[in-house]
Write a structure and sequence with these properties.
Blueprint lengths: L3 E2 L5 E2 L13 E4 L4 E4 L33 H4 L1 E3 L6 H23 L10 E5 L16 E3 L2 E5 L5 H10 L7 H18 L4 H8 L6 H11 L5 H4 L9 H24 L11 H18 L12 H21 L14
Parallel strand pairs: 5-6, 6-8
Antiparallel strand pairs: 1-2, 3-4, 7-8
Helix pairs in contact: 2-4, 4-8, 8-9, 8-10
Bound molecules: zinc ion (3 copies).
The site of one zinc ion has 8 residues, from α1.
Length: 335
Amino acid sequence: MREFSCRCGQVVYFENNSCGNCGRQLAFDPVALTMVAEETAGSGLSFCMNRSSASECNWLADTSFGDSPCLSCQTNRTIPNLSRQKSRNRWRKLDSAKRRMLADVLGLGLPVDPTRLRFDFKEDKRINPDAIEEFVSTGHLSGVITINAAEADPVFRESMRKHMNEAYRTLLGHLRHESGHYFFNIVVGQSLIDEARLLFGDERQDYAAALQRHYRTGASAAWQGNFISHYASSHPMEDWAECWGHYLHVRAVLDVASAKGFISDVGPENWLSKFVEFSVSLNEVTRSLGLPDAYPFIQTDPVTAKIKFVHKAIQQYQSSQSPHNKTPQEFVTER
Ligand SMILES: [Zn+2]
Ligand SMILES: [Zn+2]
Ligand SMILES: [Zn+2]
């Protein structure tokens, strides 16, 4: 995510729908991948129809004709029942995290086709007695990413984090991880599948049995040398999705840190080590405020190789999509 600013010069966040300095209406343009500000009050940007809904979507609509949903809102298949304030708050947080993840993948030139990639944000009876399902679990199946809407509640999420013995649990982390399941076939394809299996293992092994084993016996003590998280050790596809999610974390942090001038000279050879170096500084900053580590992970050599493979697979996809432009998108080194 790069740095955005309003016409008046004020730096604005990706989530802003108006400028705190001059009051102009703002929107994110998912084609140009930038924030746009109206020229003068009411100058007619075509906002997404959900701008005034509970999700407070701040993207531009997909067409300039009338009320229409933006690209992100077209991917919504199920949203929480909006009759309750709590549910409306959940949708706002879920959708905001989803828009950030979609902006990540659009920025990498990856396809977001709302007929293939869809989202179910579902509540279950644990948080809403009126919900239909007893138990919703977060996951991906055939292009549908399901997120248990309770994950938007900080108390629920923190108790799950402790229960699952995780170092990090956020809505954005869930969405980045799940998007990895969706994009695996798109970026790895036949040409890189052998290399993927060498690094992650054979993704065809029985998924249900592997997950059952993981939840019954836990990760082996040796997971820390080879995996970014204990969950990554449960199945090759989970290892891939974890590394994909971390790759998106790395890219997002490098983009913003470069744009803000915190790091420089990020290039094809040093991007991951630049990130690791910066993440330690970031942790020092949050520790100095009495907060937990911003990036509580250790990237060992095997993990580094896997995250670099995610980069390679995305680069190969980028080159295959732009035959006249053989240079895949590289890193931002200056503003
Ligand atoms: Zn402004
Ligand atoms: Zn929208
Ligand atoms: Zn997964």
